Structure formats: C-alpha cells, structure tokens
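To the team - pyridoxal-5'-phosphate complex, inputs and output below.
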Amino acid sequence: MTDSTARHGFETRAIHAGQEPDPHTGSVIVPIYQTSTFAQDGVGGLRAGGYEYSRTANPTRSALEECLASLEGGRHALAFASGMAASDITLRTLVRPGDHVIIPDDAYGGTFRLVDKVLSQWGVEHTPVHLSDVDAVRAAVRPQTKAIWVETPTNPLLGIADIAALAGIAHDAEARLVVDNTFATPYLQSPLGLGADVVLHSTTKYLGGHSDVVGGALITSDDELHEKFAFLRNAAGSVPGPFDSWLTLRGLKTLAVRMDRHSDNAERVVEALVSHPKVTRVYYPGLVEHGGHEVAAKQMRRFGGMVSFTVAGGEQAALDVCARTKLFTLAESLGGIESLIEHPGKMTHASTAGSALQVPDDLVRLSVGIESADDLVEDLLVALA
Ligand code: PLP
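Output:
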C-alpha cells in the first residue's frame, strides 16, 4: 500500500489515510460497500481496485486496512472478524506441529485457550513466561521456538514487557515477535518501530472504541508474512463485513483524543485508589512504584485507560465492588467510551483457572471510560465504602 498521508501526524492519518473522498460521487466518508461480489468486464476483467469477491477484498475493508497500516507504521494491514481470528491466523501461519511458542504468564484468557486447548492438539507446545523478566524469556527459548507472543501492558495485571529487548531475543533465535497492542493502541505505542514483526489488535476495544463492533487486525512490514496471512485469511474466511469495517474505521478517527482522555481519567481513578484503605494494590504502569514503569515510560506515550486493583477481604469483597458500581457497568471487554468493571477470575480469565496463568481472586479490572472523571471517582468510592 502507498500512503499519501505518510508525512502527516497521527491525528491527520487517522482521519485521512485510506480515506480519500469517493472518486465517483465525492462522498467525503468512505461508503459502506455492502456487496458480496463485483461485476467483471468479461471473464477475469476486474474493474478499478481489482475487486472480485468480498471474502478476498472489499473497498470499505481496504480503507480500514490502509488506515490501520498507516497508524501502526507498517506496510500492510489485514482486518479480521475478531481479535481471536487474527490470533488464530497468526499462529497457524507461524507454527507447525513440533514447534514452540512463548506466551505471557498473564496472557489474555482467549489467547491462552487458543494455544493451550487448540494448538496443543496439533502438537504445538508453549511456555508461559513472565515477560518483564528478559532473562527468563531468553532461558525459555528452544530450538523449536517460532514465536514470542507479547502483550504489553498485559491483561489483566498491566505487566510491561520491553519490546525492543524481546525483539532482539526473538530474532537471535530466528523466531518472530508478535505484539498484541490492544491495550496500548498505536497512539500510545509503536511496536513495529521497536523491532516487532507483527502487531495484533482486538479492534473490538480502543480502535473501534464504542463497544459496538467485534473485530481484529494484523499489521506487518514483512511482505512475505503479509502474503501468508492474507492467503490463510482468504482460505479460512475470517473477515469482517463491510459495516463492521466501516464502524471500526469511524472509531479510528477519534482514537487520539479518546486515548488522551482515557489516560487522563485513569490517572484520576488511580490517584483515588492508591490512597484508599480497602485497596491493597493498584496495577497501573503510570505509577512510579510499578515494576515496569521505567520501560513503559520509554516505549509508551502515556499509560492508557486500563487499571486493575485488589481489595481487602478477598474474592467476595472484589465481587461486591463489581456489583455496586453504577457508572462502571459490569461487563466483559474494554476500550469503549463507557467505563466497565469486571472480575477477571470469574469472567474474562475464567479459562485460566488452575493453570499457571490463574489471576488473583481478589482482583478487579477497570476499563476507564471518557465520562467526567469526578463522576467515575465518586462511583468507585461509593462502591468501595
Ligand atoms: N487480545 C486482548 C488483549 C484482548 O483483551 C482480547 C479480548 O478481550 C483479544 C485479544 C481477543 O479479541 P476479540 O474478543 O476481538 O476476539
């Protein structure tokens, strides 16, 4: 893809990359090309853009992909029906039976399930590692290691991994570094610039940004890898529809302003939680005492909208807090304009129960939205009282 907006700033690219006014009608906004197929001028005579069938390519999806590539600073992007579809295509492209992958020891539960319950059936092995411990990652590498899978910040414990250091380890081992950039978004962190081979997103979260669409994305500057991803996506069919692509593209336009506001509000919430007598620990990479703060400050523009904390009184106390908030809605997912609260042990990360990735049972996770910060802090203080 050639990006005519490449020299512009992030906010400009979010609004213009891949989004020229429609040449036929002048439509300022990319239309929703709600079509499964495209007329041909004679057999094999594809018209402008080379569109043939919407599983393979669709103009609304192409606009989204061009914008995603531009924002992540990559040459190519592919959009998917979900973040897990993007993870599935990545892993099935990178590993074969007998291969090995390193995953975070607090990976997103769905990623862990895919590796532990599905890929394991095909003879792929994995090792969960605390990724902030660079020596532990180096020690876990085997001759069969084909990928190091990174989340930073991690879900739900907000652990931080040094992307540049892990890229060095992966490349020394001739393995690929995949970074799930869902929590940080390209506005706060650019993994490809730090040496990652592939950036993955659940666009369901901050990129879509309004909790109204499920989607995923892969971005890479490696031409060969991109071709393999595109081949498998077309073969397997895990594509988003035109309307979902359009909703995600609309979300991207406001990503920068939303991420700044999410970060502002999260900082206010963290300030209230750290001094609260019923809160035993706050997980937020913006805190100086957070073990990954220095690395986060080096590789992130700001620290984002995700905050986790543990409460005195164990699991029941954590469940009570989740039940009592009024503005923080009790729900899975994250990254929307509205604030959400959840209990990872019983909800998003239930699949890790009994494994090395099990999360603390007194843990509460917040996706801090862009409402008034005063209202959010008050809601939490009432729930904790
Ligand atoms: N990666 C992370 C960090 C996530 O939080 C999620 C979902 O919560 C996924 C991947 C999977 O994305 P999706 O739910 O869009 O399939």
